């Protein structure tokens, strides 16, 4: 098959990169294949090209709706028929899409792993001509993977429905043990791994131990490294606070986390991708599937729990092959926080059993009852009523879910829905405001069954079509509901718990070794590896590559350890004399006096707020360090503030 002509025709490339062609030829020949490619290695080409060369439809299993929608959009732009099935679709739309797949209407069908448990989907799948199955983020199927998801285990059942279809598994992060486990879980007919070195020669790694302000250090990196940036923080509040601080310093920034609405996520991501916003401050909810090649820096202000997570997130920098920086910041508390993560993620088994009993009391479930019962569940209300810490309780529920006692859907979105309350001919008697009328007629044109049952709607799509904001759409729907024209039930996030078996006594709660003891040990080992990464004096790139089994990896020659003292930015943990090479003694003295003047006027001042117009934050930080060292100023051990030393 002439794969190169397909590559040229649809994707505009004249040659394949790295191991793309090897993977394409392997799956094209009908062999189960595991492709190991670093972030930015061009994974999508490895299944899109061979699928276009074959008869039938390629089933793509992907964990993120946003990623599915993005890839489908780009395929449709190229004239390639593709579809995705996700929770944002009505039942009728799902059936219509599946029927089109059966009758050859599409070349690609994207689904989430959760969809594989749907009886409707499995029934329709048995009638499709499936060329092969692609499993993206394949490490999620492994119990030993850093991001194990039980829903991935259903993929093996799909193979029995379409036994002729080979599997292409793709991942950017897998240790040797995970590589073997992926192939076993996916029922490979024989081992077949095509790997590309995870080495990123254009990525400059650096680690900085700081004792004062993370914000000032982030600002220093952004001042030294021009271009687009992602800054990762652990908590939602931290993303908001840091974005606000950067904006106050004149750096355009926004924040992103799982708690934002879909519309907010879409708008912020689009602004960042266009370059309207330079810095995206985000939790790890951001990044997977983001196609932005010119990210020049990825900065972590908190230490990730695993090398896999760090490698994947840092790897979002420099996908265009140009030099980019991966900077990891940590302070004296970071190691202690990392170690606490083990006990937080895997609380004692007795505690898990107690959470189970309290949950059953909260849901009023008697012993012996409950199998197959689904109930709404508010974690916040539960923790408040039974005096549990949310993080520990959350992880206990996750363990109970993995052990098969319950299924917990945390914050499943219940979409908005409407039903007409009047007859169609009555609508002409109402006098409506222009926007309200436009919303109503859009509903009547775009949705069927409104007069007989509740129908799910998409406020974002309505807003785009009518030309008003999403909040205005909601207000108009509320007005139509108040007038008695329709009934409107706004969307909300409703967590659910489903009992997979009858309620048992808490003494019968036994967590299998493979989901508790073994995985707790694995997490501890990953955290120890991350602590080692913070403190190692060996090449950073080589350290990471050895973790992924590349034991003969060369030194990169450009990370902070390879370059010894040629740091990207000065560490607050030790003085740096670099500014002396750029500023005269008189200029340094002026900076010193201005800082002392500022503290004289303001009194105790947060370190991050010590800034001088016309002076870079790097110079301010270094002069502050020198003033502290020479005891002209003091810092408060209990808070990151500095103040003038009292006169004796």
Give your account of this protein's structure:
The protein has 648 residues and is α/β, with parallel strands linked by helices. It folds into five domains: 3-195, 3-Layer(aba) Sandwich (Rossmann fold); 203-337 and 523-547, Rossmann fold, CATH 3.40.50.300; 347-414 and 494-515, Winged helix-like DNA-binding domain superfamily/Winged helix DNA-binding domain (Arc Repressor Mutant, subunit A, Orthogonal Bundle), CATH 1.10.10.10; 417-490, Orthogonal Bundle (Arc Repressor Mutant, subunit A); 578-644, Winged helix-like DNA-binding domain superfamily/Winged helix DNA-binding domain (Arc Repressor Mutant, subunit A, Orthogonal Bundle). The chain is 40% helix and 16% strand. The chain is built from 23 helices and 22 strands. A seven-stranded parallel beta sheet has the order 3-4-2-5-6-1-7, with helices on both faces. The protein has a six-stranded parallel beta sheet with strand order 8-13-12-9-11-10, with helices on both faces. A three-stranded antiparallel beta sheet has the order 14-19-15. Strand 5 (130-135), helix 7 (155-161) and strand 6 (167-171) form a beta-alpha-beta unit. It is globular and about 80 Å long. It starts with a helix and ends with a strand. The relative contact order is 0.09.
Radius of gyration: 28 Å
Give the full name of the CATH homologous superfamily of the largest domain: P-loop containing nucleotide triphosphate hydrolases
Question: What is the tally of beta strands?
Answer: 22
CATH architecture of the largest domain: 3-Layer(aba) Sandwich
Number of domains: 5
Biggest sheet architecture: 7 strands, parallel
What is the arithmetic mean of pLDDT?
86
Which fold name fills CATH's third level, the topology of the largest domain? Rossmann fold
Strand order of the largest sheet: 3-4-2-5-6-1-7
- The CATH first-level class of the largest domain comes to Alpha Beta
């Amino acid at each position: 098959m002439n794969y190169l002509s397909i590559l040229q025709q649809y994707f505009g490339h004249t040659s394949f990169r790295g191991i793309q062609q090897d993977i394409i030829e392997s799956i094209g020949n009908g062999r189960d294949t595991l492709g190991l490619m670093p972030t930015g290695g061009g994974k999508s080409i490895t299944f899109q090209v061979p699928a276009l060369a074959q008869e039938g439809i390629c089933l793509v299993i992907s964990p993120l709706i946003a990623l599915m929608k993005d890839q489908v959009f780009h395929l449709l732009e190229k004239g390639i028929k593709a579809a995705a099935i996700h929770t944002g679709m009505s039942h009728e739309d799902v059936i219509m899409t599946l029927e089109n797949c059966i009758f050859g209407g599409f070349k690609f069908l994207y689904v989430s792993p959760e969809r594989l448990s749907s009886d409707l989907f499995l029934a329709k799948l048995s009638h499709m001509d499936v060329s092969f199955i692609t499993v993206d983020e394949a490490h999620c199927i492994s119990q030993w993977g850093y991001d194990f998801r039980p829903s991935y285990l259903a993929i093996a059942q799909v193979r029995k429905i379409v036994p002729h279809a080979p599997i292409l598994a793709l991942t950017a992060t897998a240790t040797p043990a995970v590589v073997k486990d992926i192939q076993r879980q996916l029922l490979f007919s024989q081992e077949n791994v095509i790997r590309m070195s995870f080495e990123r020669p254009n990525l400059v790694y650096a680690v900085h131990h700081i004792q004062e302000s993370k914000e000032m250090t982030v600002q220093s990196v952004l001042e030294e490294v021009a271009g687009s940036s992602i800054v990762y923080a652990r908590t939602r509040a931290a993303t908001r606070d840091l974005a606000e601080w950067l904006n106050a310093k004149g750096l355009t920034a926004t924040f992103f986390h799982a708690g934002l609405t879909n519309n907010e996520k879409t708008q912020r991501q689009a602004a960042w991708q266009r370059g309207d916003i330079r810095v995206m401050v985000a939790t790890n909810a951001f990044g997977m599937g983001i196609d932005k090649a010119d990210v020049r820096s990825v900065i972590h202000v908190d230490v990730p729990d695993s090398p896999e997570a760090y490698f994947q997130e840092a790897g979002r920098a420099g996908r265009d092959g140009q030099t980019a920086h991966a900077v990891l910041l940590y302070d004296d508390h970071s190691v202690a926080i990392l170690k606490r993560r083990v006990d937080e993620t895997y609380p004692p088994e007795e505690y898990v059993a107690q959470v189970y009993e309290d949950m059953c009391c909260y849901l009023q479930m008697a012993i012996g009852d409950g199998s197959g019962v689904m109930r709404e569940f508010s974690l916040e209300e539960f923790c408040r009523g039974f005096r549990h810490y949310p993080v520990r309780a959350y992880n206990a529920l996750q363990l109970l879910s993995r052990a098969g006692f319950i299924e917990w859907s945390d914050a499943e979105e219940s979409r908005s829905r409407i039903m007409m309350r009047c007859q169609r001919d009555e609508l002409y008697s109402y006098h409506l405001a222009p926007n309200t009328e436009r919303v109503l007629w859009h509903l009547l044109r775009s949705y069927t069954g409104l007069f007989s049952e509740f129908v799910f709607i998409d406020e974002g799509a309505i807003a785009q079509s009518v030309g008003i904001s999403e909040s205005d759409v909601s207000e108009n729907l509320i007005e139509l509901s108040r007038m008695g024209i329709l009934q409107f039930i706004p969307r909300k996030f409703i967590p659910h718990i489903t009992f997979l078996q009858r309620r048992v006594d808490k003494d019968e709660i036994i967590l299998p070794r493979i989901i508790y003891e073994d995985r707790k040990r694995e997490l501890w080992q990953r955290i120890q590896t991350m602590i080692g990464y913070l403190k190692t004096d060996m090449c950073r790139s080589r350290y990471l590559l050895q973790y992924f089994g590349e034991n003969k990896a060369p030194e990169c020659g450009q990370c902070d350890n390879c370059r010894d003292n040629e740091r990207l930015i000065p560490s607050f943990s030790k003085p740096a004399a670099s500014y002396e090479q750029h500023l005269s003694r008189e200029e340094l003295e002026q900076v010193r006096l201005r800082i002392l003047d500022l503290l004289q006027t303001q009194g105790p001042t947060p370190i991050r707020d010590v800034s001088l117009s016309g002076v870079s934050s790097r110079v301010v930080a270094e002069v502050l360090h020198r003033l502290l060292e020479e005891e002209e100023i003091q810092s408060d051990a209990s808070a990151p503030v500095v103040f003038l030393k009292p006169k004796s």
